[in-house]
Specification:
The protein is α+β, with helices and mostly antiparallel strands. 31% of the residues lie in helices and 17% in strands. It is built from five helices and five strands. It has a three-stranded antiparallel beta sheet, with helices on one face. Strands 4-5 form a two-stranded parallel ribbon. The N and C termini lie far apart (48 Å). The model has no long low-confidence stretch (mean pLDDT 91).
Length: 156
């Protein structure tokens, strides 16, 4: 498994992957040296940089996360949430065919190994509150504001 590190506005991002695709994206609490970017991760690094620069709204990468069949089903559903939109855990559970599976859906969402690319940050509480994000609510808030269609401008 190859790895690369990218400095982003939400912290250092570690990417892991190989010729089968991108396996994980993790936001680290400490900085890592930039180093050489392996060929198998160059597209992922470029697309993440474009996303953070505000020039990409959809990722086009081969993905290869590890997880159960149910988790992969939830992660596939996350890919259908458009850039700049949010959905509640309950709505996501209903889309997957079982409103009562909300806790299992939330758990699978929280185990998503491909942050940002598989947009688990776009899932919010039924009441509109930001809830549960493995990378911290401050990062979830930042990502949602970054994707907001109505950018706040400064008056001065």
């Amino acid at each position: 498994m190859e790895h690369a590190y990218v400095q982003t506005p939400i912290g250092t991002v570690e990417l892991l992957g190989d010729e089968n695709g991108l396996a994980s994206i993790t936001v680290l609490e400490s900085k890592k040296p930039k180093g050489t970017i392996p060929t198998v991760l160059k597209d992922a690094v470029e697309q993440l940089q474009e996303y953070f620069d505000g020039n990409r709204t959809v990722f086009d990468l081969q993905l290869n996360p590890s997880g159960t069949d149910f988790q992969k089903k939830v992660w596939e559903a996350l890919l259908q949430i458009p850039f700049g939109k949010t959905i509640s855990y309950l709505e996501l559970s209903k889309q997957l065919g079982d409103a009562k599976a909300i806790r299992a859906v939330a758990s699978a969402n929280g185990k998503n190994p491909l942050w940002i690319v598989v947009p688990c940050h776009r899932v919010i509480g039924t009441n509109g509150n930001l809830t549960g994000y493995a990378g911290g609510l401050h990062r979830k808030k930042w990502l949602l504001e970054h994707e907001s269609p109505a950018k706040q401008t400064t008056l001065f």
